[in-house]
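Below is how a single chain appears once it has passed through the pipeline. First comes the sequence as given, then the structure the pipeline wrote out for it. We keep one example in the README because the format questions we get most often are answered faster by looking than by reading.
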Amino acid sequence: MKIAVACMKELVSQHFGHCESFYVFDTENGKITDGKRVANPGHKPGFLPNFLGDMGVAVIISGGMGGGAIEIFNERNIEVIVGAEGDAKQAVESYLKGELKSTGSVCHDHSHADECGNH
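Resulting structure:
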């Protein structure tokens, strides 16, 4: 299973669309088997969920995310975990242990991109 984390360096980004990159982890039997960083190709409405879905991502982890992106992920049967913070790899390990749950932190206003996940 592929799990992507929206990142700013090694940390979970607080706004999905404005992250520097996505850290895409391959997992098997509850363990990380590989990981690669993929640059964010740009924030355009509706593009990133399909970009990640086409890569075979089954789960996306982020601090905050807009409702439109969440809807597209849901339509593609990709699990959305929002409200995450801290180290990206640790977030995936917590998810695999069943310890990381979505808080439902939905961003409604792009003017506060640096604050998403904190409300």
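The CA atoms of residues 23 and 37 lie 4 Å apart.

See the next section for the split statistics.
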